[in-house]
Specification:
- Its EC number is 2.1.1.222, 2.1.1.64.
- This protein has a domain at about 15-140 and about 180-210 and about 240-254: Vaccinia Virus protein VP39 (Rossmann fold), CATH 3.40.50.150.
- About 40% of the residues lie in helices and about 20% in strands.
- It has helices at about 15-35, 50-55, 65-80, 95-100, 120-130, 145-155, 155-165, 185-190, 220-235; strands at about 40, 60-65, 85-90, 105-110, 130-140, 195-205, 245-254.
- Helix 2 (about 50-55) links the parallel strand 1 and strand 2.
- Helix 6 (about 145-155) packs antiparallel against helix 7 (about 155-165).
- The chain is globular.
- Bound molecules: S-adenosylmethionine (SAM).
- S-adenosylmethionine binds next to loops.
Length: about 250
Amino acid sequence: MPDDQPRQRRGAARPSAVVSAVGRIADECGTRLGRPLEVLDLGGGTGGVAVPLAEAGHRVTVVDPSPDALASLARRAREAGIVDRVIGVQGDGDSLDGILAGRHVDLACCHGTLEFVDDPAATLRAIAQALGQGGVLSLLVSGRLAVVFAKAIAGEFAQARAALVDPSGRWGSTDPLPRRFDVEQLETLLADAGFTDVVVRGTNILGHLVPASLIDSEADRAALAELDDLLVSGPGREFLRTLGNALHVVARRD
Ligand SMILES: C[S@@+](CC[C@H](N)C(=O)[O-])C[C@H]1O[C@@H](n2cnc3c(N)ncnc32)[C@H](O)[C@@H]1O
């Protein structure tokens, strides 16, 4: 919405709230351990999370099956002057054992990736194994209920219903996402994989329902983020986190 600040178009701005949150988690862990962290970013793609973490002094291993993404990651790392702290390796959850060769990491990120893997339970178990005891997981996945609301608001009632009842949370055969998640399902998957202290936060609860043309400044994004925070922090309203377009999970390896 209009404001008095200079306008900054979508996508041209500062790190996302989730990337900033991961930075804060890494800072806390690093302070506790008294050294830079060893980080695994599974499905880290072009380095949206890995590059800021390496810029903050941590050592990040990005594991991703896409050679194109890894090439972009390498270019970004060169441009940022952090090639000594970012390593990109082609692979997936099944390759972690061989890639890490028994080494444990302090922090594992898996953002926007669990939707695409063959077996989310096996991938979470592999990540748990890569983390040492007490290691921290940052997991970001697409939420099922958000797409149900978005489709209903757009008048796509059959697709909204499909997303609600489909075991994988898909709205149809042309849905580009193979899978979406519910909060309870995530909590079960994480407990089964050996994670504890699981905190799930819904992100982008309202923003994804607002037409993009109405969000065109940093002030708009900040106002929506504040609305999200206020929404879930009111008494009896914590369940609204389940409506997040993305669900950000932070958990500890038992
Ligand atoms: C939506 S992108 C997310 C990239 C990055 N994590 C981010 O948040 O910007 C999904 C990434 O998952 C990777 N991917 C797809 N299948 C995978 C698998 N089985 N194991 C690990 N990564 C996978 C893709 O190559 C892609 O880089």
